[in-house]
Specification:
By secondary structure, the chain is mainly α. It contains 14 helices and no strands.
Length: 323
């Protein structure tokens, strides 16, 4: 069959950028011009999109279900905030440091918790989040505790653009960082490493049988996901100049999981749908029904779960069940 395409060439073509993949970036650019008064809120949406994207790497592709992803978001936020409050005021290097510290925390915890599976794994991710929250609360001499970390000073971006109340610099900064993270994540999931993660998610025993280093690859992707979550947390700290315990709370882990489920798990673009939908709905519902607004979020989640077979998303993958 000389006319048949080579399998490698077919895979390469399937990984090429399609015009539809530029749609999120067109929307992000259009929102900058069309909604100038909402740029600070838009920057928050971009941050949460990056956070949800980081979760999709481990949940959607590796099949690792976690209830403690906010631990790494908070570690990154506190890392960037503490550095900015103690003289390290350059934003880009501070953001890189936040991602590196969160990534190291992800690797250290991943080596331990990824030796387990099922309910034990789920509970350990929750335990890590609670421990990180308590450390941030008790170490008030460094983190500010319940009062939050204050006194942050962030230099103008690249020495030219300062962070102001109108969110102009923050929006562009967050959009650029999100684009770089998305581009990296896309290359990662379409690489042989990313394909092996899908294989681990689908049939871990078969991956063991062919000699794939399952645990090592899971630890690596867990650390990468933690680093991206830490970068999202660092963006929050730098653009708001404040870090509170809510940046590392269990509620945030649940919220980002809801965002990802709303948008669709395991296709990278669920974060670009779920995060804006959740945050805009939360903002509107909290204004119209400040007491019971979470009921409507729950109703939205139920509706999405019932219709999760729609083309916008994919079914939640099977959990990793081996070690």
């Amino acid at each position: 069959m000389s006319g048949a395409p080579h399998p490698i060439d077919a895979i390469a073509r399937s990984h090429r950028l399609r015009p539809l993949e530029f749609l999120p970036w067109v929307v992000i650019a259009a929102a900058w011009f069309a909604l100038p008064e909402h740029r600070p809120f838009g920057a928050q949406i971009l941050i949460m999109t990056l956070f949800a994207l980081s979760l999709d790497l481990i949940l959607g592709y590796a099949g690792i279900v976690t209830l403690g992803h906010a631990a790494f978001f908070g570690i990154g936020a506190y890392a960037a905030g503490i550095l900015a409050a103690n003289g390290w005021q350059e934003p880009v290097s501070g953001l890189i440091a936040a991602g590196a510290i969160a990534g190291l925390a992800g690797m250290a915890t991943g080596i331990v918790i990824l030796r387990t599976h099922g309910l034990t794994l789920l509970m350990l991710t929750l335990a890590v989040a609670f421990m990180a929250h308590e450390v941030a609360n008790k170490a008030s001499f460094v983190t500010g505790g319940a009062d939050g970390l204050q006194g942050m000073v962030v230099d103008p971006l690249l020495g030219q653009w300062r962070f102001d109340l109108f969110g102009r610099t923050a929006y562009v900064y967050c959009a650029v960082v999100l684009f770089l993270a998305w581009f990296f994540a896309r290359r990662l999931v379409h690489s042989p490493f990313g394909r092996s993660l899908t294989g681990i998610r689908e049939n871990v025993h078969r991956m063991h049988a062919i000699g794939s280093p399952v645990r090592r690859r899971l630890v690596v992707v867990y650390a990468i996901s933690a680093a991206l979550a830490g970068i999202a947390g660092g963006l929050l700290a730098q653009t708001t100049k404040f870090v509170g315990l809510n940046a590392i709370a269990f509620d945030l882990s649940g919220a980002v999981l809801i965002m990802l489920v709303l948008g669709g798990v395991g296709w990278l673009y669920g974060a670009f749908i779920g995060a804006p939908v959740y945050m805009i709905a939360q903002d509107m519902l909290a204004k119209s029904d400040p007491v019971y607004w979470f009921f409507w979020i729950g109703l939205l989640l139920v509706a999405r779960a019932i219709g999760r077979a729609t083309p916008l998303g994919q079914a939640v993958p099977r959990r990793w069940s081996g070690g």
